[in-house]
Amino acid sequence: MNQFLTLEQVKLHLKVDHDDEDSDIEALIDASFIAFEESTNRKLYDENEAIPEDIKNGIHISDAIIQGAKLLIGHWYRNRETTGNLQNLPFATEWLWRRHRFVNMG
Is 105 inside a domain boundary? Predict the structure, then answer.
């Protein structure tokens, strides 16, 4: 799924220097972009990839989307054992992503 963030970029963001959790971190990376697409009703495309004309909710990846994903991954990584409302995005991620929401008007 993920083509927008590397494991190395995320480990640097998380300040993780071991390999023990690589598969868990990769799963968080994938989940963060799924969260973006589901919370904004958008379909992500690489900046070099053409968005098909029939895809009205397509969007190219941006630095703000990537930063929101990193913040979300960091939140999930630090709060792996926490229970609570899992429906809400962290405020910073919500703030970075909310302008990208797509509302289909018909």
Answer: no
Q: b/e map of 7-25 (b: 16 or more CB within 10 Å)? A: eeebbebbeeeeeeeeeeb
Nearest alpha-carbon partner for 93 in 65, 68, 62, 56: 68
Does residue 2 belong to any structural domain of this protein? no
Domain span holding position 22:
7-100
Query: b vs e for 67-96, b when ≥16 Cβ sit within 10 Å of the residue's Cβ?
Result: ebbbbbbbbbbeeeeeeeeeeebeeebeeb
pLDDT tens digits for range 12-26:
999 999 999 999 999
How much is the pTM?
A: 0.84
Task: Kindly state whether residue 68 falls inside one of the protein's structural domains.
Answer: yes
